[in-house]
Protein: AzlD domain-containing protein
Organism: Agromyces archimandritae
Amino acid sequence: MPDPMLLVGVAMLAVGTYATRLIGLLAGRRRAKRLAVGAQGTARGGSAPASTGDAAAVPAPPLPGGAPASAPDLRGGAPASTPETDATPARLRRSDLVVVVLLAAVALTGAVFDGAEPAGWARIAGVAVGAVCAMLRWPLAIVIVAAAATTALLRLAGVG
């Protein structure tokens, strides 16, 4: 049976990953609403946002599929995406970086601690050697063997 702390760590990683994606989605929706309000205000020649009860409101231009820009999105009732709200490569890189940081934090915790106790210098050195080999883009089998050999040799030498 797996260690309960491992399960808690994986659950926390999953929650953090999806929370980060959700926060990005909500921020994108909020930005889309601000852009839509600003576009309505400038379409009339004014600088203030238009009121919702104005009878002379200019309808939003249709999207390429023929649906109006205010049509609900099938993913949850959000306004249809526009070029300003689509995921840009920079946003995708940032969200992917957040996931990598969360995974690295879980891996680092597993490398430094053995349950509630510190893991010992031999394991930390083995993880460090494995990380360097991985950054040098060595084959995975060599990375694993190098990390395991480093840990085994240090433990054989009496390093905890």
Remarks:
- The chain has a mean pLDDT of 74.
- Residues 62 and 68 are 4 Å apart (CA to CA).
- The first strand starts at residue 113 and ends at 114.
